[in-house]
Fold this protein.
Amino acid sequence: MEVKIIMRNDTIVITQERMAGWLMFNRFHKVCEKVDMKDSNRNIYIFKDSPILRDTMGRYQQFKDAINM
């Protein structure tokens, strides 16, 4: 699952709307939202990269598994 691209200014690009929603639900603030240059029907979501954000991204699959039981 490709959802992230590391940028030089310590930001991370999230390409999946649900992952972006999960991060915002967990109180991470979007730096920016833009139209995806590869597919104008999608948006990309830019967040400030941090170890805590990465940890929260890792917990997303556990959350999905718990609600799909």
Q: What stands out?
A: The chain has one domain: 4-67. The radius of gyration is 12 Å. The first helix runs from residue 17 to 25.
